[in-house]
Write a structure and sequence with these properties.
By secondary structure, this protein is mainly alpha-helical. The protein has helices at residues 2-22, 28-52.
Length: 90
């Protein structure tokens, strides 16, 4: 949400500056550029803000579903056991 708000503010300011340079100040075209800049930069800000929320946590601070880490089962699991027609291990 804050990324979209920051993007809207930046877009409004950038659109206002560009609109006053490219068009007559106060014209409908200038206000259209201000509105378009606010919408575009709000969407870009929301996208960047949402993507930054997907950042991986620091090592050893990952959220866990268990209080204690899960233990490895003793012995070999099924996928590790050789099948009957498998070549011998090297």
């Amino acid at each position: 949400m804050s990324g979209a708000l920051a993007g809207a503010v930046v877009g409004t300011l950038a659109g206002g500056v560009f609109g006053m340079i490219a068009f007559r100040p106060g014209s409908t075209a200038m206000w259209s550029i201000v509105l378009a800049g606010a919408i575009f930069f709000a969407l870009v800000g929301a996208l960047v803000g949402g993507m930054s929320g997907l950042e991986s946590p620091d090592p050893r601070t990952e959220p866990s579903q268990f209080e204690d880490p899960a233990r490895q089962p003793p012995g070999m699991t099924r996928s590790e056991r050789p099948s009957d027609d498998a070549p011998p291990p090297r």
